[in-house]
Write a structure and sequence with these properties.
The complex is a heterodimer of chains A (about 300) and B (about 475). Chain A is an alpha/beta fold and about 300 residues long. Chain A has helices spanning about 1-20, 30-40, 65-70, 85-95, 140-160, 165-190, 205-210, 230-240, 255-265, 285-300, and strands at about 25, 45-50, 75, 105-110, 195-200, 215-220, 245-250, 270. A four-stranded parallel beta sheet of chain A has the order 2-1-3-4. In chain A, helix 2 (about 30-40) crosses helix 5, helix 3 crosses helix 4 and helix 5 (about 140-160) packs antiparallel against helix 6. Chain B has two domains: about 1-65; about 95-470, Porin. Chain B has helices at about 1-10, 15-20, 20-50, 110-115, 205-215, 415-420; strands at about 95-105, 125-140, 145-155, 160-170, 180-185, 220-230, 235-240, 280-290, 295-305, 315-325, 335-350, 380-395, 400-410, 430-440, 445-455, 460-470. Classes of the chains: A alpha/beta (about 300), B mainly beta (about 475). Chains A and B meet through helix 3, helix 4, strand 4 and helix 5 of A and strand 8 of B.
């Protein structure tokens, strides 16, 4: 009996020790979650807050999120003011000192990225909701996903040194996969190099820069500002005859205005997933899906 | 940059250019080429410096802000505003919010304060400066954060009044899932009381909040301890202890400016002990019904002495419910539907009251001189009310909402048999449809219609146009 008790205790201890080793990781957005899943693999418990289809700027700070953050060992956020409208109250409510800004458990993906469109001149809100820290949609560039994987492996290794080598190996494997796939994707989209496109918001800047597409203009006149009829009329006038074939929009955008613009200038609306699903094996297929959707649309005008 | 250097040189030397002196032009060309090369080299350097990732060993956010070698145009110059309100890398987030109303009512100016009892409601026909609020917010040190809300208003004589609405510190890393807040704070009672008017869905305060918690809501100096309870769903239990005196504790130790309230004079005596403080408890729980629907429900109770006698006290009980639907493919936060309801019940143990009304040195028992003794006995006054509101964000930036308000007494007070029905207790209701347009996250225009019916006063119609602007730090509200 005594022996049995001992065995049980030992088993229980071993289980709690193992459980304690599995890092609780929370990603604010699915694209970050997709990369975290590659790096952490089965060594982490991953939770992702936002839905892939929703607008990452306007996620509701649901109380259940605070509950998830309360248990977290590591919070991965995009940064560059992407989640500024909903993360601060969640972090305050989570009552978790490990994930407070400045702690090792608070990871900001934007740090260490080459952030584009960072305003160099004076910024104020007459220009719309311009992010003073630049365009936060950097996960649209597969190279940046690789950068994130490397930095994430380092951070995870710090929090769980026992598995540091595994995290690094996972990140390396993911980066290798990206590197191997990139030439293929670039080849697919190569015929469209230099083509001008219209987007709704500047969500696709990083993707377009990577694959050689050029932004003609956006449907929203300024970041976060709803287009007025006069803006749309002048956009159409400007775009007519500019040889624009594609209007790229995120899947959650209203369709009516982009479709009108496309119709009037003889272009086609391409609805794209602006986020992958969170989880392993999601990032690269998403990227491939974006390229394929654009190439496909340009083939069948 | 290259172009601007060239342009500057060209503009600076128009005479030389016009002179057509070949030698000079050649020399200039050479010089320009050199300059261009140098500029390119410098730009390359700047780019490298800008894009270099921080050393991996540096803690990501604790480090001082990365000083990037940016183009000279990004340096501060006297023509640019000094920004302290930029969230994310500042010591203090500063924001300034202006909330105004304009409109008219069938009630005349003298009646409007009774028709619109909230402290930030429109106060007259024409314009009202409802709430000019400066918010300071930020981390104090690694253990505390702070917030202060200072509010200006203009009264009916256009005199400026100043209110310290909130000013508190809060712990950020207390053990045991606890948060302690201390300072001047809005009491954690129900859903609306602890929020600021600019975040409300309507141009005015719900009637039940104004009547039972007070025109300015329930707030006073004190402390609040909140605990994230270890339930599988989100739930929070909080306790507050606050001063019970003053006009921001309307149902407690408030002398009501020396006037009668609930048929009695109210006198604030000194604090005798812990029992004279205002105690408040709240429990709230939240569930995600589906990935697109969240519900939040709470119960609250506020307990403390009132100013009608030495041993008289007040209890206020409340329940609140909030439901929100927002589809998982929302864009810019739209569309959405919210439903919010609060109900409250107040037990006011009012002390006996008799006084020398005519100042002749004897207590007047028969005020009306009709042979009936008019001394007001001690009694328990029960009042209740609720509001329920639905808001529908139907298109980006557009929200339509409807609210129904109802307040009443459970039974007439015995003092009302003497002095007549008390408009602070009699039944009234209000129906308020409105439409709000948010040109951006930082401004709004709202048109609201109020249909009011008050027992003893009849029906009133009011139309209020509310407008708001917000400058400074990007706000983030709790769910």
């Amino acid at each position: 009996m005594k022996k049995l008790f001992f065995v049980f205790t030992l088993a229980a201890l071993a289980m709690t020790a193992r459980a304690a080793h599995k890092l609780e990781v929370v990603a604010t957005l699915p694209d970050l979650g997709a990369v975290a899943a590659e790096v952490g693999g089965a060594l982490i418990n991953l939770n992702t807050l936002a839905n892939p289809a929703e607008d990452p700027h306007f996620v509701d700070p649901r109380p259940s999120f605070a509950k998830i953050l309360n248990r977290a060992d590591l919070l991965i956020e995009g940064g560059a003011e992407l989640e500024i409208g909903w993360m601060p109250p969640l972090i305050q409510n989570a009552r978790n000192a490990r994930i407070l800004p400045g702690q090792p458990g608070h990871f900001i993906a934007a740090e260490g990225m080459e952030i584009k469109e960072r305003p160099t001149g004076p910024v104020d809100r007459s220009q719309g909701d311009v992010h003073p820290s630049g365009n936060p949609h950097f996960m649209m560039d597969p190279i940046n996903a690789g950068v994130l994987a490397g930095r994430l492996a380092e951070r995870l290794g710090k929090l769980d040194p026992e598995h540091a080598a595994q995290f690094t190996a996972n990140a390396q494997k993911f980066t290798d996969e990206l590197k191997a796939a990139l030439p293929d994707l670039e080849k697919m989209i190569a015929p469209m190099k230099g083509q001008k496109v219209i987007t709704y918001h500047k969500s696709f800047t990083y993707f377009m820069d990577r694959f050689g597409l050029e932004l003609f203009d956006t449907i929203e006149p300024k970041p976060g500002i709803e287009p007025s009829p006069s803006h749309i009329t002048s956009l159409i006038q400007k775009a007519k005859g500019a040889g624009i074939k594609l209007v790229l929009i995120e899947e959650n955008r209203p369709r009516k205005t982009p479709e009108r613009v496309a119709r009037d200038i003889g272009a086609k609306v391409v609805v794209l997933h602006h986020m992958p699903e969170s989880g392993p094996g999601r990032y690269l297929p998403w990227m491939r899906g974006l390229v394929e959707a654009i190439v496909q649309a340009s083939k069948n005008p | 940059m290259k172009k601007s250097v060239l342009l500057a040189l060209v503009m600076a030397c128009p005479r030389l250019m016009r002179g057509q002196d070949a030698a000079v032009v050649d020399a200039l060309k050479n010089e320009l080429r050199e300059l261009r090369q140098r500029t390119e080299q410098l730009e390359e350097k700047i780019k490298k410096l800008e894009t270099a990732p921080p050393p991996p060993s540096a803690p990501a956010t604790n480090a001082p802000p990365v000083v990037t070698t940016e183009a000279p145009s990004s340096l501060w110059s006297p023509t640019k505003p000094i920004t302290v309100g930029r969230a994310g890398n500042s010591y203090l987030n500063l924001s300034f919010d202006g909330l105004f109303a304009a409109g008219a009512s069938t009630a005349n100016d003298a009646q409007i304060p009774a028709l619109q009892p909230g402290g930030h409601d429109p106060i007259q026909r024409g314009f009202t400066v409802q709430n000019i609020e400066t918010t300071f917010e930020g981390a104090i040190d690694p253990f505390l954060r702070g917030q202060a809300n200072i509010v200006f208003q203009l009264d009916r004589n256009s005199e400026t009044t100043l209110e310290l609405e909130e000013a508190w510190l809060e712990t950020t890393s207390l053990q045991g899932n606890l948060t302690l807040r201390a300072g001047q704070l809005l009491t954690d009672f129900g859903r609306l009381n602890s929020t600021h008017p600019h975040s409300w869905n309507f141009a005015d305060s719900p009637l039940v909040n104004a009547r039972l918690l007070g025109p300015d809501g329930l707030r006073n100096p004190g402390a609040r301890l909140a605990w994230l309870t270890p339930t599988p769903f989100y739930s929070e239990l909080s306790f507050s202890i606050q001063n019970s005196a003053g006009e921001t504790a309307n149902s407690f130790r408030d002398d009501h400016g020396g006037g009668a309230y609930l048929g009695r004079a109210h006198n604030i005596n000194g604090l005798r002990g812990l029992g004279d403080m205002l105690f408040d408890a709240r429990y709230m729980a939240s569930f995600d019904l589906t990935p697109e629907q969240t519900i939040l429900a709470g119960v609250s109770g506020a307990f403390g002495p009132n100013a009608t006698g030495r041993h008289e006290d007040t209890q206020i009980y409340g329940v609140d419910l909030y439901w929100k639907w927002k589809p998982s493919n929302q864009s810019s936060g739209f569309p959405f539907v919210t439903w919010q309801t609060e109900a409250m019940l107040r037990h006011y143990h009012a002390g006996a009251f008799s006084e020398d009304f005519d100042g002749n040195g004897t207590i007047d028992l028969d005020v009306n001189q009709n042979g009936v003794i008019d001394t007001v006995p001690a009694e328990l006054l029960k009042d209740w009310g609720f509001y329920t509101q639905l808001a529908y964000g139907f298109h980006k930036g557009w929200v339509s909402a409807l609210r129904f308000d109802y307040v009443d007494r459970v039974h007439p007070g015995r003092y009302e048999a003497v002095f007549g029905d008390d408009p602070d207790r009699t039944r009234r209701w209000r129906l308020s449809p409105n439409l709000t347009w948010y040109p951006s996250e930082f401004s709004k225009v709202r048109l609201q219609y109020n249909l009011d019916e008050r027992v003893g006063f009849g029906v009133d119609h009011s139309v209020w146009l509310q407008f708001e602007f917000l400058m400074g730090a990007h706000g983030a509200h709790n769910f």
